[in-house]
Amino acid sequence: MKPTSVYDMFIISLFLFSQFVRGLEDCRSGMYPPKGPTYCCYSPHMINQMFKGNVTWYTVNLDLPPSERWTQVIKDKNTELFTMVQTIKDMAKGFFHGKLVDLVDEELPLIVDTLPQPFSEEIKGIAAVSGIPLGEITLFNIFYEIFTVCTSIVAEDFNGNIYHARNLDFGLFMGWDQKNKTWTLTEKLKPLVVNINFQRGNKTVFKSTNFAGYVGMLTGIRPGVLSLTVNERFNTDGGYVGILEWILGKRDGMWMGFLTRKVLENATSYEHAKEQLSQTKLLAPAYFILGGNRTRQGCVITRTRINTLDIWELDRKLGRWYVLETNYDHWEDPMIFDDRRTPAMKCMNQTTQASISLASIYDVLSTKPVLNKLTTYTSLMEVSTGTLETYIRDCPNPCTPW
């Protein structure tokens, strides 16, 4: 698969605008639990397209040496991981006459020893078990600093229960398949989605939804304490700048996925997590969406690489019973060709606080274009019960590319 060309982008744009109006729909209802053909307005074939089953659970033992922690996951997902990495390499061959692939294989392994522990040793262990070159596993682990788009919601019901859910959308501009109307990399990532129960002393420390082979965290819950998701924030001072600085020796920033894992593993409270996410210098700008275990504990933290621009919190006095983040500052309008926020908010308001639940939020995240061709999975979390459910998604045509 060649990298997306100018012509490809023209075709994608035409498809986007031709599908956009048809891809919008009324708010979904009755979509949860996502099985069976009886849901309103969808045929059995469309239901089968939208839902591919619960995601497999694995245990990662934090008491093991870092190089051994991911062994079982990688053994089970090695074929899928190899296929995904090969897809990235095939796309990269079109850049700089193939020199980019050589750079990955020759130079990126040198970066691994500069990464903080235990991530460096875990990445080395994954490469050893999989047989995939270390540089390519490293590339997979830094990819998410640049290429993620998502929708995340934290909501509170009338009883003070906090719900947190997200669609993770990934693979933008990574090889558009015109025939199947899918993103190549998105489809390769879906088989890699796993749920992980991180344990220490045979007790759960936190849970996450991961792509097998990636050691950072994009979606996770520390039962009884907090839930956390991260969305990309588009900015000219983006993740590629931070990565370049790291390569050149300026290493005072934290990798986004490593910070979220550190918070999930070590934060003792919602406030403790909010402090770490707000004050730690980053390699990439981001939105951290944080949920807690009591009333009013939910916020969107808008970050540059250096500082925090805004913390947007639940506030019952202001009638703000949910906060919802896609990939744009909440005080600014989203791009007209990428407005997932407006339909998502419409559906949340239509649901009302009286009826909010993980099931009703799943309906919101199942409504196009909140659900789109980039959506790899939907995760649902409730801190008080320690619930984490994840479902791999497909968006039936007509459906917007993003």
TrEMBL record:
Residues 54-114 form the Acid ceramidase N-terminal domain. It holds the Pfam family NAAA-beta. Residues 1-23 form the signal peptide. It comes from the Eukaryota. It catalyses: an N-acylsphing-4-enine + H2O = sphing-4-enine + a fatty acid. Its EC number is 3.5.1.23. It is found in: Lysosome; Secreted. Keywords: Disulfide bond, Glycoprotein, Hydrolase, Lipid metabolism, Lysosome, Secreted, Signal, Sphingolipid metabolism. Its main location: other. InterPro entries: Acid_ceramidase-like, Acid_ceramidase_N, CBAH/NAAA_C. It is an enzyme of class 3 (hydrolase). Residues 150-387 form the Choloylglycine hydrolase/NAAA C-terminal domain. The keyword Chaperone does not apply. Pathway: Sphingolipid metabolism; Lipid metabolism; sphingolipid metabolism. Belongs to the acid ceramidase family. This is Acid ceramidase. The lineage of its organism: Eukaryota, Metazoa, Chordata, Craniata, Vertebrata.
